[in-house]
Amino acid sequence: MIPTEDASARKREIEDKLKQEQETLSFIRESLEKSDQLTKGMVSILSSFESRLMQLENSIIPVHKQTENLQRLQENVDQTLSCLDHVITPPETRVQRQSDISAVLLQKARFERGKELLEAEFRSLLTRYSKPVPPILILDAIGGDEDMEVQADVTLEHLPEAVLQDIICISAWLLEYGRNQDFMNVYFQVRSSQLDRSIKGLKEHFRKNSATSALHSPAVQTKLKYTPTKKPPKRPGTIRKAQNLLKQYSQHGLDGKKGSNLTPLEGFDHDLRGVKHLSDDKHGAAAGKDDVLDIEIDSYIHCISAFVKLAQSEYALLTEIIPEHHQKKTFDSLIQEALDNLMLEGDNIVSAARRAIMRHDYSAVLTIFPILRHLKQTKPDFDTTLQGTAASTKNKLPALITSMESIGAKALEEFADSIKNDPDKEYNMPKDGTVHELTSNAILFLQQLLDFQETAGAMLASQAVETCLLWFSESSSSASSYSSEFSRKLLSTYIYKVLGNLQLNLSNKAKVYEDPALRAVFLHNNYNYILKSLEKSELIQLVAVTHKKVEGSYRELIEQEIQNYQRSWLRVTEHLTERNIPAFQPGTKLKDKERQIIKDKFKGFNDGLEELCKIQQGWAVPDKEQRDAIRQAQKRVVSEAYRAFLQRCANISFTKNPEKYHRYSAEQVEEMIDKLFDTSA
To answer: Which positions fall inside the Exocyst complex subunit Exo70 C-terminal domain (predicted)?
Structure first.
């Protein structure tokens, strides 16, 4: 017998399996029901599609049959008419009609062939005789604007006269009889290619010959108004030395390396000690790169002018060949390739400047200045030349100008901030207290703005949107005058801001010096250099537009630092005062304490004099006028006090060895002071 417990377990197992089988069966049943529903749905869709297809077929077939019948009827009618015409018309007439039809067909074939030949001749003449304008001729044409006393009569002849007349006749016939405008596309394609080649040829010629005087033709060269008494037009190359120095400073600010080739001001010594000079090899390599960049800038400026001149000449030629109502559109297409290439080159200049600014090379803005100034000067002629072209064409130059003004303003503002936040405070400080290269580079940068005041002002004004709106609300003449005045004020404020940032930075840098006297010499040298630079370069007049007391402020700062320096001599002259000297009568015997007081005063004076002269002899005051004035003032104070002290002690016997304490005469003291700030002594 099976135990009761085993029977129960077996029963439960069977019940569990039964339950699982029931669940499986239920799942299969549900799946079958869903499958049936899907099948019914698909059958319904197919039935509906079949019904609609049959309806469409029933509708199309009758139409097709009807159309076929109509075509057959049409053919029958044509055949019937042809038979009737053959029966009615006499034989002679039929022959003549067939002859006329053949003549018309032949004439039409000849017309089409002639038109094709004329189109080919139009293309052939235009292609064969269209040549790039020689670079020398282009330079003569654009050079006559500014560089000549008497403008040269430069004619840009694109096609020989006889060829031009043939092309004009062909274009007129094609337009009137050929009713074909394809020749206009041929025209703008050929002339567009020659325009672009002319500008590229000018650029290549400029690169090869810009270092020589062979830019213009001999006939025009004699009319150039450069004379020994007249300065030639300022070329971008004149700012390259300044740009090099600023680039060196910007690199120094990033990697902590020092390097500047500071050009001293008039009245300053030939060397500014503490400022490192470049080696000849490095300078030569840099000069070579600068020459290449100068050529690129000059080349671009000349190409902009050349485009305007050539475009004007092309439009004059176009008006003789292309119908009036197609002239603007054809001209627009003709100039696109050359214009796009120039604008692309301008965008590349802006991109290069933007990358340089990201590297904190703010001198890149100096490259934009001459280009931007020329673009703005050329814009009126540019707008006149492109009048009537598409808005997208006319807006290309203004967009480039706006882009350059924006990147220029960014560089100016970031340069001002870099002067304020220059991180180099300890590692690049001149040990002799001479002019810091931050000062020289900042002033050098500002001096370049004098040659581009209107351009720099416009850069700053481009950020003042509300002011610009105010300008446009005025009349054209007053708005122009006001904008120029406002730009000048903005530039004046900007320069004052840079000077303020520079002064703040110098004050912070001076704290590195532990000796208050050297700190005063450092600040004096820098403030004096700033003032002399402002006066020499006429920056002072520009700053005075908005800040009239700037000159007086710097003179006060200079005098204040001189006084701070002179305090260092108090520890020498204080030994010469009457303080602690006892009152006595001539011939009176002094006590030991009284004799010691006098000895200490001599010793304190001698030691202090020797120490200060030894230390300050290695300091620098580059400005000779200031150096002599400081020496003279110090000699006067020290020698007068020393002479008075010697006179008081002349009849006093305070030691058996007076030469031990009375080491220097008043004249010798003055000679020692004369050697201050002079390492050669």
So the answer is: 301-674
Distances (CA, A) of 448 to 53, 73, 455, 618, 654: 85, 92, 11, 33, 66
For 301-340, write each residue's pLDDT tens digit: 999 999 999 999 999 999 999 999 999 999 999 999 999 9
> Is 574:521 a contact under the CB 8 Å cutoff?
no
DSSP notation for 149-187: SS--------S-HHHHHHHHHHHHHIIIII---HHHHHH
224 - beta bridge partners? 148
Rounded to 5°, the CA angle 437-439-442 comes to 105
Cβ atoms of residues 176 and 170 within 8 Å: no
**Cα–Cα distance, 437 to 261 (Å, whole number):** 9
The pTM for the full model equals: 0.70
Q: Exposed, middle or buried, 633 (CB in 10 Å: 0-12/13-18/19+)?
A: middle
| Cα-based distances in Å from 580 to 605, 606, 656 | 15, 18, 22
Side chain identity at residue 157, one-letter code = E
Q: What angle do CA 308, 314, 315 make, to 5 degrees?
A: 90
CA distance 442 to 187: 54
Q: Are 186 and 122 in contact (CB under 8 A)?
A: yes
Percent of the chain at pLDDT above 70? 77
3-state secondary structure of 148: strand
Calpha distance 161→159 (Å, rounded): 6
